[in-house]
Give the backbone structure.
Amino acid sequence: MRKETLSYRIEQRKSLVKWGEVIGILSIFLLLPPFIGIPIIISFLATKTNATKTQYYTYFACIAAYFAAINATKLPNGDQVQYYVAYMNVPKAGFLKSLVYIYGVDFYNNPERTQISGEFLNGVYNYLGYYLTFGYYPLFAALLTFAEYFLIFLGLYKFCLTMKKPHIPIVCGVITLSFFYLFFNYTLHIQKQFLAQSIMIYVLGNYAYYGKMRKKDWIRAICAVFTHAATLLFVPFLFFKPLHSRLTRKGLLFIGSAFVILIIMGPSLASGIATDNNSALTYGVSRLAASEIRNDTESGLVWSQIFVIAFPMALIAFRKLWLERKTLSDSNAFILNIILLLLLTIIAMFRQPLAQYRYFMMLFAFMPFIYPFALNNIKNRDMLLKMIAVVMVVWFYYQFELIIWDYAPLVDIIVKSPILLLFDNYYTV
């Protein structure tokens, strides 16, 4: 009994994160040129045969910090202008008004409005962030980006621990997502959605790992919903128990068909429920009800992205859930069920191209979750994941200066340290 207790205590100590070590290594990383720091931090973890939780967290923090620093150089454009103005409005608006005017330009259009936004937590982030970052927007943008990446990394980490030999899926999954230029491209452009989905993916990863929703996970899920209403899609997964395990083929067909019908009928059903667009309780339903009216037909799916992203993910999910379901653990089946129903949601939203593409973008974050299922053989699986990671890195730097948004020059994001990128006056309005 004493031996078992001692063994348990040792394991508990190993599972604790040494935050001093994480912060220390991160501080050094922030001072290094990326062409030196990135290979070092990847090699540091990739060569470990038995990496600790602290080492994984250090790796996550460094990679997240690098992309946060790049985003700090981004000149606000498109939707981000609204978020920038909301942030700069904080001293004038105050706390309560920040919850009302999460879109900053609206403050000047209708300064008499008092009803709190259904996505009011963005106002909280703006208000607290403004004073924590001393009104320096690039630092705020960096913190948001860091949070988005780090939360998804944590969710991926928890999920991969349910797999056989999770080390390479974790290492390569982080690289695959981080250097996927489309994911990076939208992190600040539609910051509400990407922050909300990052929180929700962290919750889903925890659920897959622990097999249940803890109180703190429920709080996080609520935070995700009130950050962006689109994450309401994932709430049923947290309640509907059949989705937490392997389904029979009949069960998969029934749930899939019912889900598609519900999504197609969703806007008309929601229009009968929604009564107050400004109420926090009905906000998500109101957004769904209006989704067919407020459409931009030019914002639909891009066929090249369908073939490169959605089609391979659909094939992997179908093969595992339909043909090889008996080999799946409940944790793995849970995530695959989510990905499959997300794909079905995208298909079912054919009358809502703008909303359809918004949900399509959620697939980006699930890429490292599904790719480890592509091959059953561990050796082949790990080799495939390494190849995907390398391709993503090369493609990111090739594509970087073709991105329509304005960042620091390509040479600078390779040569200049993250701390210089953050404070080197790239940002001007």
Summary: Residues 339 and 366 are 7 Å apart (CA to CA).
